[in-house]
Automatic annotation (TrEMBL):
This is T9SS type B sorting domain-containing protein. NCBIfam families: Bac_Flav_CTERM. It comes from the Bacteria. Pfam families: CHU_C. Keywords: Signal. InterPro entries: T9SS_type_B (IPR026341). Residues 1-24 form the signal peptide.
Length: 1085
């Protein structure tokens, strides 16, 4: 079966054609339109202009909204359609004069140029003492004015986007755009106490000159506050000899918001230390002081940094003017400075390093002296002391073998290169000293197993050449307990269990008892869950008591009982707090779950265009199953609150954690513990009239909105109506109205409507019948009724409506007993009733009916093939008794005449109203004709082994015969006797026969010209059929005796009238086709 859909009948188009034809008495006129884009809700317009009208003719206009060109949405005689939404329109202009009319049409597209108002609020600082501000940042739309409508204080409407002098608290800010819409958002304004601090004094490593030093401090405003200007700074300098005091004062009228660097230059200090007293006061009167002693003299700091072996020497220089001359006053004798630094004693860097790759300086005392460009001298010393690392030696005897143990040795920050056992128990298997260096691992550690009990001495050398001698003991065998631990699992109703052996690894595990929820039959061998390291771990156990038996690698058996608990997500909703505000929301996390470890919490937004979750602000997508990051999610700390979140949409919270007993440190669990949706801002979705079933009529309108209820509905122009919370305005006269809606947050949405242009709440399109064509003569079929929804909805949003189907009008009116959307008819045809209601505006409905028809395709015969001869034609006829026919040649009659070769198809229709069932039959017409015999190729001059090949041309299908009775497909005949033949070539399609005579020649082998009347002449047999043939006769010496043609009687055995003797004679035949043949014969007397 197959379902047939009708094509759209554009009735308007045909009406225009008919009108133009019938009323051709009116001449065509010029018609054009211009549009104004929709910049505010419902303010688009179309302006019409006509010219070339007949005198005293009237013009009216109809407006259609694509794709519905059947029903106009407005009609006027003025030159403008106003208060239109964006969309594609068709305008029909009709010129009327008396009883005559003609029309012109034009398309018009109104562009949606509305920019939706959106903004965010930031906390700022004006720089004035104690004056913190809120700044409104416009993200989109055309903002015109701003106000605070709720909070500790309110601020009336203003054109600026900044609010100043605000106390701490929560505010609702409202912003108006140029269309009269207003958007509100909530912002929590926190005031942080400003703390003024000043840093310690720092000196520049580089002196400006030999007599001055510059000191620096940084003034900072902490706790997220800003500096308040002007800032007054007073420096007082007291030299250590007590003879001089110097004061400086500086005022900073402006500067950076949070940190201000201050400095002063001290001169003529004559190598003295001095005290700096700093007093700072900001514009708010806040004061901070500091007192520090400054040493301006050269400072040399020596430090050591560990190298692979030994230490490097670091020399740091301060309070000097480069270049510097460096001299080692004292150093170990083996130290050569040039081996550790390429410079030759003169430096310009303030940090100088002496060292080699992988090798430090010789140990000992180093004393350096540095002289700068001013002659200032700085000295310092350091002792590099060799401190051997202490080997880390671990012995154990906890394996399965009670008579042997193990040793592990490592040197911190070193690698072992040699190991020698110099003393061992008497039962040690090798002779001592025993070089065990080959057992040192690649990371420089020594591991020895199967050592007999007793005392040992081990001598080792590390990669720096240091020697270590360590005594150790392999102790008596020790019994270790196995370890079993449980924790919650990643899944809500499952827990995890981890089991490790004591002296041996886990070898087998048998579950003896388990909760009833455990899905396996008991006892259950769970050994397959043992890892290659001998650890048993499972994480899919139902909660409850378990009795488990296991065997370790030493062969010991154990049995224990353990309680497994599961992850509890029953309290998920209580671990986060969602505070929805006007235009924003706050989010807090407070999780007391201590059953899991390494918890992190993440906030994500859903992006339907990608069907994926991602970062709420940036839109970077998150890959499911991976660890969230700050790039694709927002991290929230436990106990933290995110304030003033302005985004809208669908959101979720993810808790990422680890179970306490999972041996895999990279295994994480993901719990989506919160999902919620934040609705968009206040929106007027549409305005409808109530001219529908159950409605109150076209003079009443209803406003469909979304936002934060309750709402206040009002008309503000051309009359004022405050409708309160009621969204239906009644008894309105036809005209243009400006509607305003305000939600509970103070957001305002406005639109302008023309009541004449409004559609009803439910506008049900006219359903066409549904037809399914049956190939099996079955009267029943399964209909997908939702295939009607597109034509029922028209331009309306399918998300806003519910469509149901019913078996009678009563059920359609009440909405009761809807049938399945996949419905099989019980009679043929069957009437189905449809009902459509608005999902949120349940004030009226619309119903209609259509038929379910199981149609039948025409039953046509098999495809046919036929042949016609050149110059003839044939009548092709389809089966009789069907609604209509359509040939591939375009003809619509039941029969057509075909006079050319080709494939002809006819589609035959059974019509069911606007629908049809069809079948197609194909006729293959082949053209044929009489053959043209082009050439006959023969091989003759034999008695019975001659052949002919017949070459023909033509469009037919040919067969061949030599007697006109028996035909063959091959054009070759062989084993033929010499003689005269008629060639027959017949068209197998009956278009005729072509013939041609042919002689297969031969000659007499002897003749007897003795006058008895028998065999008196020698001639080529059949030569009379080739009259142009020439025959030449020679004696055995090659002498030409005679020549004659094909129509002559032949040779009588004479030459110049004399009889030739008995003998063999030779002949040459030249045929008309250019072939020659030679032979010989005998003349007998």
């Amino acid at each position: 079966m197959y379902l047939i859909f009708p094509q759209k009948n554009y009735i308007l188009f045909f009406l225009v054609l008919i009108s133009s034809f019938v009323h051709a008495q009116l001449s065509d006129f010029n018609f054009s339109v211009s549009v104004t884009e929709e910049s505010c809700s419902g303010n688009g317009s179309i302006t019409m202009e006509v010219s070339g009208l007949e005198t005293e003719a009237q013009v009216t206009y109809k407006l259609f909204l694509y794709p519905d060109l059947d029903t106009p949405i407005a009609q006027t005689s003025s030159s403008m359609f106003s208060n239109l939404e964006s969309g594609d329109y068709l305008v029909e202009a009709t010129q009327t004069l008396d009883d005559f009319q003609n029309t012109q049409t034009a398309d018009a597209t109104i562009i949606d140029a509305i920019t939706v108002l959106d903004f965010e609020v930031d906390q700022g600082y004006s720089g004035v003492c104690g004056d913190l501000i809120l700044v409104v940042n416009i993200l989109s739309g055309n903002a015109e004015s701003f106000e605070i409508i709720s909070g500790p204080v309110t601020v009336p409407l203003q054109t600026g986007n900044t609010f100043t002098n605000l106390p701490e608290g929560t505010y609702v800010i409202r912003v108006y755009d140029n269309c009269g819409n207003a958007l509100t958002k909530t912002y929590t304004y926190l005031f942080n106490d400003s703390v003024l601090t000043v840093s310690e004094i720092e000196q520049s490593n580089v002196l400006i000159n030999c007599d001055e030093v510059t000191i620096y401090q940084v003034i900072s405003a902490s706790n997220g506050s800003q500096l308040s200007y002007p800032i007054v700074v007073n420096f007082t300098i007291n030299f250590s000899d007590g003879n001089e005091t110097t004061s400086y004062s500086q005022t900073y009228d402006n500067g950076p918001e949070t940190e201000l660097e201050i400095s002063t230059t001290v001169t003529d200090y004559a190598e003295q230390t001095f005290t700096v007293d700093t007093v700072i006061q900001d514009g708010c009167g806040t004061m901070v002081t500091s007192t520090e002693i400054v040493n301006p003299n050269p400072e040399i700091n020596l430090s050591e940094v560990a190298n692979v072996c030994g230490n490097d020497l670091i020399i740091a220089i301060s309070n000097m003017l480069p270049p510097f001359t460096l001299q080692f006053i004292q150093a170990p004798i083996e130290f050569n400075p040039s081996d550790y630094n390429d410079n030759q004693g003169v430096y310009s860097d303030f940090v100088i390093v002496f060292g080699q790759e992988d090798e430090g300086l010789p140990f000992g005392v180093y004393e350096v002296s540095i002289v700068d460009a001013c002659g200032n001298i700085g000295e310092a010393s350091i002792e590099l002391v060799e401190e051997l690392e202490i080997p880390v030696v671990n012995t154990s005897n906890g394996g399965c073998d009670t008579e042997s143990g193990a040793l592990s040795v490592r040197i911190p920050n070193r690698e072992l290169v040699s190991a020698l056992i110099t003393a061992a128990p008497i039962n040690y298997s090798n002779a001592v000293p025993d070089d065990v260096s080959y057992l040192i691992s690649s990371n420089g550690r020594l591991m020895l197993n199967d050592l007999p009990l007793g005392n040992y001495t081990l001598e080792m050398i590390d990669n720096c050449g240091n020697t270590y001698i360590e005594d150790f003991e392999i102790p008596e065998h020790e019994i270790y307990d196995f370890n079993v631990s449980t924790s919650v699992s990643c899944s809500t109703n499952l827990g995890a269990l981890n089991l490790t052996g004591g002296n041996g690894t886990v070898a087998s595990v048998i579950f003896i008892e388990a909760p009833v929820e455990f899905s396996q039959s008991l006892p259950y061998d769970y050994s397959y869950a043992i890892s290659s390291q001998g650890i048993f771990y499972v994480e899919d156990l139902p909660a409850g008591n378990y009795t488990i038996e296991f065997t370790d690698s030493c062969g010991s058996q154990f049995m224990f009982t353990e309680i497994v608990e599961t992850y509890n997500d029953d309290n998920n909703e209580s671990i986060y707090v969602l505070q929805q505000n006007c235009g924003s929301f706050d989010l807090s996390i407070l999780d007391n779950d201590d059953a899991v470890v390494n918890q992190t919490y993440w906030f994500q937004k859903y992006y339907p265009e990608y069907d994926s979750w991602g970062h709420p602000n940036t839109g970077v997508m998150y890959n499911e199953g991976e660890l969230p990051t700050d790039i694709n999610s927002i991290s929230i700390e436990n106990g933290e609150s995110l304030l003033n979140i302005f985004v809208v949409g669908e959101f979720r919270l993810i808790k990422v954690f680890q179970t306490a007993v999972n041996p895999n440190p990279e295994a994480y669990c993901f719990d989506i513990f919160g999902e919620f949706e934040i609705e968009s801002e206040l929106t007027i979705n549409d305005v409808f009239n109530l001219n529908c079933d159950g409605g109150s009529g076209p003079s009443d309108i209803i406003v469909d909105v979304s936002g934060v209820p309750p709402y206040n509905f009002s008309i503000i122009s051309p009359i004022v109506i405050d409708n309160g919370a009621v969204n239906v305005f009644t008894d309105l006269s036809a005209g243009i109205y400006e509607i305003r809606v305000e939600d509970a947050c103070g957001s305002i949405a406005a639109t302008t409507i023309n009541t004449m242009d409004l559609l009803p709440v439910v506008s049900l399109g006219n359903p066409t019948d549904m037809v399914i064509c049956s190939d099996s003569n079955n009267n029943q079929a399964l209909f997908n009724l939702t295939e009607q929804n597109t034509q029922l909805l028209g331009n309306q949003n399918p998300d806003n409506f519910t469509i149901t189907y019913h078996l009678n009008q009563m059920d359609a009116d009440s909405g009761n007993n809807p049938i399945s959307e996949n419905y099989e008819n019980v009679i043929n045809p069957q009437t189905v009733y449809v009902r459509m209601v608005h999902n949120t505006l349940d004030v009226c409905y619309e119903t209609d009916a259509f038929q379910l028809i199981v149609g039948f395709a025409p039953e046509l015969g098999a495809d046919e093939s036929t042949t016609i001869c050149e110059g003839n034609s044939i009548l092709l006829s389809a089966d009789l008794g069907y609604s209509s026919y359509l040939w591939s040649s375009g003809e619509t009659t039941r029969s057509i005449v075909a006079d050319t070769e080709g494939t002809y198809s006819v589609t035959v229709f059974n019509n069911y109203g606007d629908f049809y069932c069809e079948a197609t039959k194909t006729y293959t017409v082949v053209m044929s004709g009489v053959a043209n015999i082009e050439n006959i190729i023969s091989e003759d001059f034999t008695s019975n082994n001659n052949f002919v090949d017949i070459e023909v041309s033509g469009i037919g299908d040919y067969e061949y015969s030599l007697d006109g009775v028996t035909y063959q497909l091959e054009n070759h005949f062989e084993n033929l006797d010499s003689g005269i033949y008629t060639i027959f070539v017949r068209d197998r399609n009956g278009c005729g026969v072509s013939t041609e005579n042919i002689s297969l020649l031969n000659y007499k082998k002897f003749f007897t010209p003795n006058g008895d009347g028998e065999n008196e002449y020698w001639q080529i047999t059949g030569s009379h059929l080739e009259t142009d043939m020439q025959v030449f006769v020679y004696d055995r010496y090659g002498k030409l005796l005679i020549n004659f043609s094909g129509n002559d009687i032949g040779w009588d055995g004479r030459y110049n009238g004399n009889q030739m003797p008995t003998s063999d004679y030779w002949f040459l035949v030249k045929r008309s086709n250019g072939l020659t043949h030679t032979g010989h014969f005998t003349l007998k007397r």
